[in-house]
Amino acid sequence: MASQPKEAKEASKAPKAPKAPKAPKAKPSKDAATAVTLELRPAPSFFDHRISIFEKLWNQQKQAEAERPRDKISVTLPDGKVHVGTSWETTPFELARSISKSLSDRIVIARVNDELWDLGRPLESDCRLEFLDFESDDGKKVFWHSSAHILGEAAERRFGCHLVIGPPTTNGFYYEMSLPDNRAVSATDDVDPLNALAKSIADEKQPFQRLTISKEQLLEMFKSNKYKQHIIRDKIPDGTSTTVYRCGPLIDLCRGPHVMDTSKIKAFSVLKLSASYFLGDPANDSLQRIYGISFPDKKRLAEHMKYLEEAAKRDHRRIGKDQELFFFHDLSPGSCFFLPHGSIIYNTLQSFIRSEYWKRGYQEVMSPNMFNSALWQKSGHWQHYHEDMFTFEVEKDTWALKPMNCPGHCLIFGSRARNYRELPIRMAEFGVLHRNEASGALSGLTRVRRFVQDDSHIFCTEDQVGEEVSAVFDFFRTVYGILDFSFKLKLSTRPEKYLGQVETWDKAEKTLENALNSFSSAGKPVPWELNPGDGAFYGPKVDITITDALQREHQCATIQLDFQLPERFTLSYQTADEGGAPESTTAPDAEGALRQGHARPVIIHRAIYGSFERFIGILTEHFGGKWPFWLSPRQILIVPVMLSATDYVKEVWALLRSHEFHADMDIGANTLNKKIRSGQLLQYNFILVLGAKEMSERTVSIRSRDFVEKSQSGEGGQVVLGLDEAIDKFKALRQSKDAQNQLA
């Protein structure tokens, strides 16, 4: 089951029902012993129970469909062409096949009137029809969802397990399951058999069959699976129906849709194994989770496996350990210990943002780390968020560690009277935040409990919003450009449930749209798209997605307009209409309404890195541990050619340190080659090799990390510079923040 079930349409009467297709039989194995090794013999007893219920209901559904009236319908394709079909008979696959065989072979799923639709499911009335292949986002989701069902079938046949959920993910799919006797899936004994079973399932060309079924029938069908029983009782209202899908002996609670049959999955691989909890709650049963990936052809699978190899080399957890940047400890899960070299990266990133704050008119503040729960109740966070907060009791009151800075910044704004001449106020804070993430969700630096954001809240007038948002866009371009990230923007508009007036929302959305258009047309174009209905309940937002060196996308930055917090905290400023000096109080009248001559500010929530911890994790993998010089914790390593050069090494080291370079020296007992190799493995940007000639001429021989091959082959990767000239070039490279590790 990949997603929560939804109510399906009831089938009606039909003249004659075709026979239910029989479950495809597994092809006999050439080696019976191998077959027994791959899967259980006999098959799990619940197979027959499920199938008997399914086949009975399938016959009834096909009978009802056959009795539906056959009317002529118009099917409009994206190019405007209209095809004539027959209701309850013509399928999207048949229409695709009539256009071209290559189209029908390529497509994964259909979209009918904006609803994803099985290719083999009959169309019911006049409609708009679109065909989607694997290259589309929805096509990938359906392809991987169907692949999850293949994995589920393989797991049931091998283990006799009880399946729980099996959704597609952004990069593949997984299935959670409970194995008999609390057995764990073995990487050595089970992965190859699961892959072999998945291949045989694909070879069998098992059709995906969609059946509408009532809650009562579901409970009977899955009576042996306590996890499905819980989901059915909890998610499906009494008296309603949902759908199940069948492929081979697998029948699972699922709203679909799916590919036509299992043969579409040409390349399949189990990727990794892990443990999880039922419904993500540590108080519930522990489950096994199997992750997989699949593609329409073997070439793409091979390319993906190479990509995963490169991603593994760049894993920030491995690099963090190898370069001694950070670690975690069981005594404080989800809270990072930054070691000296990791702290250099952290502090450099913070100094960079702080220097931009100075140029751009931001003011830094510091607010408390814990607050009485009354603050969060006033802000509205308590009602929706308190389970994700760390709470505790102080003098019989409930307090909490802050998970965000915005309520505290509202208190700062409201601490005295404000005048329109003060606005905009760009309030920034590097505040320590805590969020009570589930232990099973913690993952290196990318999911933590304790973190720091480069958080800012801009208090401005409605008329200033456009200009401020444009300035923030420019801030994004500067930061991401220096860090060698491309990025794209998405405008999320008013959701179904929102606070405030429609007119205010419309004006804010138009302001953001104008700012996006202006930004995208200036300088290097930055793509943006509309994401209707996905704004926050308190205002529209712009989400910024960066793309790293492996072409993975990460959402870090955000811009959110907020009209609600100023209302909740009764914030106001004196407008130009009243004039004069600010009054001594900002207190509104007894009802919280604004006094004459005052207006509410708008708050722009803004972050660029997001959290420092997650951003450092992303940067580590983006650079593969090869830090640009200005950000590097290991900029320069100095090694002597012989013992007599040690004093000169120490002198050069002291001089570099006096200019605040992160320089180290290796004057240990290892050979010169070993010292150089060690420096290369630790990704020093430059290695200075000092011998008798360098001492006598007061020069340095410089090997660049990014030109090590040229250095070894004598193609000019190693240069000799005077000591003062080298320091000037190092300074220039640091100041430029150039991503290229090359001296001018």
Beta-strand percent range: 15-25%
Number of helices: 23
Q: How would you classify the helix and strand content by structural class?
A: alpha+beta
Query: Taking Cα atoms only, what radius of gyration do you get, to the nearest Å?
Result: 31 Å
Can you tell me the residue ranges where pLDDT is under 50 for at least 5 consecutive residues? 1-36, 579-588, 709-716
Helix content: 25-40%
Largest sheet: 9 strands, mixed
| Tally of strands | 34
Distance between the termini: 58 Å
Instruction: Tell me, rounded to a whole number, the average pLDDT.
Output: 89
Shape: globular
Model description:
With 744 residues, the chain is α+β, with helices and mostly antiparallel strands. It is 35% helix and 24% strand. It has 23 helices and 34 strands. The strands form eight sheets. Strands 16, 20, 21, 22, 23, 24, 25, 26 and 29 form a nine-stranded mixed beta sheet that branches. Helix 10 crosses helix 18 and helix 15 crosses helix 16. The longest helix is centred in the first third of the chain and has 23 residues, at 137-159. The protein is globular, with a radius of gyration of 31 Å.
